[in-house]
């Protein structure tokens, strides 16, 4: 060896157990995505399976959702938080309903009432100019009765019509306690008797037609909340309808008890995530040893380090006995990027074609009404 | 100039309007914190005022909270999301109640029931070992009936006692619809008649004693939800109590309508944040042109770019007519770091000493019961 | 109006200037993505343009990159931080080089040396099992000489061969100061004379063949750093080659001075982002009033609230005179999701077909060698 | 049991191994911080030890730093990324130097040159008004030659003086290759011969006086980079000084080889983090089996899910053989909040009083100059 060559020390690498190094390398090698040959959703997601970071997680989440759909015994529950409908994901969810890719929806009230029902009444969401995101124009927006969601605008005058419509629907109900599921069916019936949605697609309407139950466990915290208050104020001391949040929990738990195997597709976290995970424990409280959710996928950018539920891992949920850990995957992505890829992938893979509608709404309407 | 010196071009800096550069520099210069001389909370926060990033935001938030407390006309509403009580912030909030630093609390159910009431029943939260945060032991934790919140453990058997206790309290109530505020008062009364909390401090108990109303707008989504379901299952067709989430909204709005000026101290986002901001609009729906929340502070690590409400800026809220923008500040920090500093600062500054208790619970108990 | 109907107050909405509300609504309405009809990259990105949040930002970023490619006067500089090559993005970048979609690359050393050159030597990156992400097996991985990057494994023994190879290349160079660009050309020449890369694609090799310069402004901070140290240790007091980081800055600035219009496609932040933005100011220091970067796109999940450069907005860069603000867009997404969509979109749109190679390496080799 | 009581099912909790549940509960219970009685930094951090989330992590990080200081054999290396000096942390770091709480600093160039040296030349950083954070005024700031770092302003005309001063210092050096450490000593010497810093405190000056070496492994990527380019341009073909980044790596590795036990206090990530971790491997390359860094603390808000080095866990570093995992802790906090608490805690605990200065600069000046 010539004098001026470097003498790199490669020997003392401490690979003391080289013989079984392979046990860590079973999962294969990273392969590089080729965007010149793979223009479609299915090959894109397929290519992501051998990449790293969020892309691999996304592919794995798509595989798990695909597996839920292939599992004929499994009921699929979609949970929805964040402003997903105003962000352009309405048709994705409507297509999930139409094609038996979801059996129940647990959502924030805003996604269903302020956004889906709002559009069903014929209104639209507007694209905000980039400069509005700075917040410096919010005072001026207020003067124009325009509400901002990050980069999107809502005409507050139109939203007030939505508020008012929910109040009118409540005014016509017989005075008793309702679950949010029952109320969403009333919203669907309202759309039906007023000529259907005044837009191409509506989650509430589609779910109404196909017996897919929708729950909003914080139903008071949305446009419908104004309707509830207006109804209560108008009735004064006379009997009135109320929203019974406990009944929501009871009903969703009954679905778990009847369905046994369940899979969760969670978009964002919040109350919908926690509430839906909790039905496993609630079934136990009611004396039935229901299995944990068998599959679970969550798309979120929430940071696990604040200890909040929205970001809590699905493994953590398993310590509570809520989610099984064999088929669980979190995807670190804002939902408008990841959800079209995951649902598009599973739509085109077609497992839903062998799936029959579970029609959980009708399941609830007999015994639930009787006992609750 | 010597030949070998560099000729740096400093002239063409385009400072075309140098004469008014000072208009951007009015806020003063950055001063460096000195930790050798400033050991106390007050001088630490004072020093942060002339630093940058989260420290300056924290100091400004403390100043705004201080300003809320000095404003005799202003009612202070605390909103709570995330597992804050299990994380060690219980006494901070109890001290806020004791010293007239808060007039109403809007919280996730879990903070109040699963965590504060749980500790009031004599149970404790446990510190989890570092390795448990990996999630790899969650299956084993499940076998031992230990629930994990990030780095904290709860004994599930103890939590079931908490669930059961809520059910017992509900069983004893006369069958009608209740707001969560009314139910929290029943929890406080339960503690009173069973000898007080079995620990040093309890938010629910302290609030009960001092007429500070507590709301959980998603009251079904916590330990009490199990109690609601158990109560409903036990009652079957017989009359029963229900939780009326619409009444929560009605009551909190009435406080806004009676109080006029309000300030928000928000720890985390979620339903408590949205719900509390919405009461301004709800007052308008009820025909009263209530002013926007005059002050608003939020401590959160949520990322604004997912468009969700938890992370939405307080400026954005002003486009909805909910929050005024003169005195608003978000603090990017996990709450266990920022909240002790903010509350500690304001405690030691002492503005609360000139403040009288608003006793909003009693305010609600006369007219609200009558009209709602 | 019947007595029991709610009387919602919709009048006092303060839309005092309704007549010009439309000025905020020019950008059109949110349209919902249809994943059943749009399987390809181009229609997916097109659909995202009228969605919200990250999807709209991604579509806008793709449009800006497309615009850079259509602008015949514009030189495109790619900056790379984060472990992007080990994550499966190598072929995307090689295709950018092959199709005249990039004119210069500024990267962390690791992406180029530890990952691209490493694969060119015939080695692979391995997919790590999910459980390894917990960190609990890292001690065991160390014993097996396996290095982990989040969810990916590298065989340290293979990486040492890469380190050693860089040292060998340095040993054969004449002793003088080199820019990292010159050294990457030596890496390319090494691959050429040893039979080409031992894998399908190599960024360093493709850039060498096509005269696309590569810079690593922190060239000491990667596998090549070990080579530099080994070379220095072996040479002792005798003359040796050195890496001259100042020359990197000088050379990249010269490209800016010769090219005038430039566009930045930034993946991650770090030194590559800052260094490349700074060449505008450096041109000014050298006495030439170079225009700001005309276009700028960045894909990152870094949070702006820590005040660090990686997350600093492109608007902020404009206060420094570095980036123009007409065509700039940040995309909040982990890169493995967003980059294939952006590059795939622009590849299939085909603006690169009318673009000629700028061959910036040869541009530098005449005057730069003479003057620097 | 009365008929109308709920029958909660608490039995089937699957706590199959109750007898050893205690093994998970050894770490004690959560105790609630009391801000009324604990105004000082030390009791605040002490109270955080039994809280959760970031507060507990911060207390553990403070304990580890305290442990580093008590370990007489351990050399402490501070790494600095992000704009920490402009943010008000200068005096904290100066106090660390003054009180033997740090033995070497590895920093971004900007913290040392653009910020500390800049202030030493008599300039100041300015507090930006809240509205400037929106980015909408950045064009106007540019016109006024004001540079923005998030919420802080720099007068670009003053910064050009700093650029120019570095060029002048380089012009006076004998033409050879320098490590950044040598160049920082020249900066210190410049301050000394021009009458000391024109402000209360300077890291570069204090480190110069106390033989604490400072490295900037990407020294070209800051104000000094402009100086390097100006110097090179002025010299033309004549001999000139160069910055030798490989020598930085060689020198820092020699410190590791001589010191053996080392502890890292990392503020932010970036090149300083990676570079400093790598010296363990580099020592091995040079034929010495140096122990991993024994202690490691990092304060960062970077998200681990992008796979980048800045956010990579200290456990992951241990798979590379860089950091031992017994005493390592990451703290999820923006640095201006956490660093004053950690350093303040350790300052007041006083372990540094028993520590002697390692004077690593002088250590390097004998053998390093001879061999490198």
Describe this structure in words.
The structure is a homotetramer of 372-residue chains. By secondary structure, chain A is of the alpha/beta class. Chain A contains 15 helices and eleven strands. In chain A, the strands form three sheets. Chain A has a six-stranded parallel β-sheet with strand order 7-2-1-9-10-11, with helices on both faces. In chain A, helix 2 (53-70) packs across helix 13 (335-349), helix 6 (156-171) crosses helix 9 and helix 7 (180-193) crosses helix 8. The termini of chain A are far apart. The model of chain A is unreliable at 1-15 and 367-372 (pLDDT under 50). Chains A and C meet through helix 1, helix 2, helix 3, strand 3 and helix 5 of A and helix 1, helix 2, helix 3, strand 3 and helix 5 of C.
SSE layout and pairings?
The structure is a homotetramer of 372-residue chains.
Chain A: H1 41-48, H2 53-70, E1 75-80, H3 85-98, E2 104-107, H4 109-120, E3 126-127, H5 138-143, E4 146-149, E5 152-155, H6 156-171, E6 177-178, H7 180-193, H8 203-209, E7 214-215, H9 223-235, E8 242-243, H10 245-259, E9 262-267, H11 270-285, E10 293-300, H12 314-319, E11 323-332, H13 335-349, H14 360-365, H15 367-371
Parallel strand pairs in A: 1-2, 1-9, 2-7, 6-8, 9-10, 10-11
Antiparallel strand pairs in A: 3-5, 4-5
Helix pairs in contact in A: 1-2, 2-13, 3-13, 4-6, 6-9, 7-8, 10-11
